[in-house]
User: Fold these one by one.
Assistant:
Number 1:
Amino acid sequence: QSTPATIDLFGRFDRFNFFFEAVVNTTTVAPGTVEPTAEGRQSSGFPFVAPGFPQPSFVIDDVHFHSCPTTPACPDSKTKFYQPDGTCNNLVNFLSGSANTPLTRLLPPEYADKKGSPRISSGGGALPSARVISTTMQDDVIQRSGKFTQEVPFWGQFIVHDMVSTPSSSRPSGVNCRCGSTDPACFNIPIGFSDFQFIQERKTCLPVVRSQPIQDLHCSSAVRQQLNEITSFIDGSTLYGSDKSRLDELKDSESNIGSMKIGKLSPHGFVPSHSPILPLGNQVSDALHRSMACPAAVHKPRNAPCFVAGDIRANENQVLSSHHTLFLRLHNNIVQDLSQKNRHWGADKLFETARSIVAALNQVVTYGQFLPVVLGPTYMKRFGLELNKEGYYHGYDASYDATVANSFATAAFRFGHTLVPETLTRYSPHWSPTGPSLKLRDSFFNNEPLLSTQFGGANSVLRGTTQKSSLTFDTTFAADMHNNLFAPPGRIGHDLLAINIQRGRDHGLPGYNHFRVLAGLKKARKFSDFVEIPFSRRNTLQKLYKNRVDDVDLYIGGLSESSVSGGIVGPTMAYIIGHQFRALKRGDRFWFENGDANTVFTPGQLKTLRKMSLSKLICDQMGDTRTMSPNPFLQPTVAGNARKPCTSFSSLDLNQWKDGRANALDKETDTEFTPWFALTTEGGKKIEARELLDFLLLNRPDDVCPRVLGSEKRSVFGKNQIRFKCSPGTIKGSPYPPADVKMGVWTDWEDSSTPTSHNGDDDESRGKSHKCKGPIAIQVQTTKGVPARETGEVFRKHSPFAGFLCRKQDQQDGRCLDYKVRYLCKEIVKGPISDGNPTTAPPKTKPTAPSGFKWSPWVSFSNPAFGDGDREFIYLVYGRTGFCATPTKMEARDVVTKQDSRLTGDTFQIFSPRQGLYCANAAQSNFVCHDYEVRYLCKEDSK
Ligand code: HEM
Ligand SMILES: [Ca+2]
């Protein structure tokens, strides 16, 4: 006999809201009755759908199915900064990275029925129970890191709550996943009789509600997808939310300087806090309060209202709430300071300016301090994640899609769960423990320690996490994560390791072995091929998964790997994480370092932002903090990381935001220079600066600005060169196509000349006319991949029309680097262009299908110029007329030239009738795939 394990949920917030034995009928609950009852029990679910969220549009498996998002109308004039919901950031694909769109996929899903039922074993049966895997993979002893602090997991949790939030299934009558339930919205984890959970509380299952099923971006519901409710961009949505109505409520409507609401206490007998705390549920609408995940049944000793914030999970643990507090204070301190400096600024301008700074500082800490510790130097470099030391970043590329990937959210970035410690210790300003240590389980949804200044509130919480060691990266979890997650007082709870494995199956994530291949590791045929996994763990996995390498779940396989050098996670997770953070950097038009047309900050502002660190933020915002280690992710005992006075860290110089600053005398930092140009013609004749400028404005408009403020000259080998001074942001100068042009087709990279064979010059101006019709943009890089403009060399030609030419005599060292060139063209044609009549190769005549079979129509969903490759996965056509689920053959050809895929020279990562086609740009010698269309051969009567 089993104890019913019941989940009460409605809406999107149940992930943090499961509890046991409290059967509640959500439909009868009146609004406003969500306050916990005296027994500490939850009296209702959260029957509320936040305003601004699209309502579910239809029902599948009796569960609301989220409709596919409609493309917003983005204003013609370019939006200047992040919209609350993240739309209109990418001007080619308005929805890229926005809230309420599907998670993307790095690999096609693997569902048992190809549509949406959880993955099963390659041998056909069920996969081993996620709970059995979880318990078997635990070591007897929990290990603490000798190097990393608890700030690593907790900053990770805070920043990922800016990137992704995946809701569970819901329906008006609730979803009740008691053990034995046959509700298709449930995917419970079975518990065996020898399990601690059964022995203690006779539990026969751990309830898991499946994620809300949604349509894909093509509005097809043939294959189950999952939703991201928040903006993928690192835009401070933790603080500001992901929709305008939420943001409006979180703003302090009484403030005329653009402040955010702060907590007003204290009817509950808490000592009021002197430093601001997060606003409380009773200060906002019922609807907003109820949107917060804050289950009373878990731990609400004194009936305090929950905090409200931009992200619904802000109450999940006190360290998380402390990070929210830090940035709330930061916002309010910035607007306060700026209102003094710019007395004429209105509340909106103050607010938006502070918001831009908060978003930038989240990026600074994440890329500047956090990711290097997690990924190590190799992966930082491989994915181009390092911040520039100076100057603007010119890597913005509208073809990158910032949207969070399913495997990142559901597996790779959950790596932090294994680092979370068993206890939390608060530290005084003098770095000694203060107040009682809290067991992790007692910190879940317990905001009490932050409500008062006793023991230092959030300040001592963050001093604690930057001092104490995290657990090590492995498959062993703190007991409170592994058995007591969200446990009601006196009870045991859930198992997050088991949930994570189960969630991967729920989402149809392919197994670990497939992701190994994606990450550049060897595809395993037997367990001993998993050489990245230590021997004993590999053995345990082999037994658990009954010798089937393809069955191993991504999460447990990834966690089992040894760390990459200089980092924490193993190579498979490092790949997925690096890939994601690259997309979030290159694919974000408002990335804080962006130059070009998308500049958010002046050079002076950029400079002061770059010098900021998490240490300084904690120093400044966590009131009584006097000293801090320079890198809060490393223990103070690590060489070079001893605590230093807060005054020794650079502070944020808000004078850089003072109006009139750009006209101030400090011109050096507030102007930008064009590249250097030769003041001679190609024939060697001298020309005047004015003449040159006219030439450049016509021929190389991206390299100069329309209004020149001044110039500077120098002499190279006795010949004069000049560069022009422009106001910040007015030199377009991107090696990538501007975001708002209609995308064309890229040519292959060409490297027709090398400096040695041409006497030290590099001339890439020939040849291109044979292919590119209607050139839009040129991209030039050294053969090692450095953008031409970042080399400091001087070019004679650099335009989509004239091509590219580097002359050795213009260079200070007398020689050119070796460059490669490609063009973005309206059309690519074969052979020389003859009077506007492209001689496109005629499409090959179709081979007819063998009798009893038929070919599907040709389809192309993805364009390799838009993303990191061409993805023509079969699941995209499931359910469409003319296609079938199990084709016997697949063909692919270039969309434009109709050239057969076998003749293009591309290599394919996936090419099979069962999965479709995947061509990774990075795997091609010229770093870009052809754009393919595919078709499938189906049995005549098949579907
Ligand atoms: C006390 C600490 C934490 C607790 C109690 C916690 C709990 C949870 C829970 C209950 C879920 C939902 C699981 C599901 O139903 O699928 C979740 C999701 C997740 N967690 Fe944690 N977590 C903690 C810390 C962290 C850390 C340190 C990281 C990373 C560094 C992290 C990353 C994630 C990610 C990426 C997700 C998926 C988010 C989504 O797609 O909605 N968490 N966590
Ligand atoms: Ca965000």
Number 2:
Amino acid sequence: MHDTITTRGLAVLGCGKMGSAMLAGWLQRGLAPSSVWVTDPHPSDWLLSIDGLNLNVGFPESPAVVLVAVKPQMMADALPGLTALGGRDTVFLSVAAGVPIARYADMLGENTPIIRSMPNTPAAVGKGITALVGNDRVNEEAMRMAEDLLSAVGQTVRLEHESQMDAVTGVSGSGPAYVFHMIEALAAAGAAEGLPTDLAMQLAKATVAGAGALAEAATETPAQLRVNVTSPNGTTAAGLEVLMDEAAGLPPLIRATVKAAADRSRELGQ
Ligand SMILES: NC(=O)C1=CN([C@@H]2O[C@H](COP(=O)(O)OP(=O)(O)OC[C@H]3O[C@@H](n4cnc5c(N)ncnc54)[C@H](OP(=O)(O)O)[C@@H]3O)[C@@H](O)[C@H]2O)C=CC1
Ligand SMILES: O=C(O)[C@@H]1CCC=N1
């Protein structure tokens, strides 16, 4: 973990599902709870159980980073309390879907270093991916500090343009939910074919986890890995004929799914 974060502290505004997923990852990677200040109106039992965490006692005078992890709709209520930290070298790191950097700058002052990012909940097990983009007040050192922090809970990618963030949100921010639903659907289909529910769920989870791990580790493309499973005239070919149907299969469905999520991100930014 970056030294500046340990010495100056990490402030977390809003610690629900996403904030907790990231915090869980950081604590697992050795960040001391005493370096973290969390403000949340209804802390979970998990937060309350963390020894040494600075919970609902305000923020330090000059934290290295303020992680903003409240819902976009709560931003106008939550942020004004932090204006005293704006315009200095404290980096505001937002994970909120849709909320543009300009909106933070309006509330915190134009001189505030602001990074807009989009993580995902696999951060809780160190397998997240976070895309990030900063305003011109974020110097290379500040960007590296944020990347250092975020890379403790998974991969990081820098975006060239803030406008790419809506599509990123539709793919990797919301993406884990699509994959969890795939697990649910695969398990339900297995049960419909006669398997006990628990066994079907075990098979579905292990298959998605194993395929994901293989896709990441292999030198072959996902398309080639798919071909490797597909014996001529075999069972996979029969299944894929349904799944890959160009009119009613997965490609148009996923295209519409990602578009709906990205459109919602754009809407939240209005
Ligand atoms: N969940 C996900 O997978 C991802 C979420 N995000 C983004 O993360 C942000 C949080 O989402 P998520 O964690 O799912 O939502 P949650 O509702 O789980 O978390 C938000 C937390 O903020 C708290 N809160 C509300 N008002 C304030 C306030 N004024 N000051 C401090 N804390 C406050 C809420 O408390 P209470 O519940 O009591 O109101 C809640 O605990 C959103 O902006 C979302 O776009 C980004 C990527 C992925
Ligand atoms: O559903 C949402 O709005 C948030 C952003 C990405 C994932 N969850």
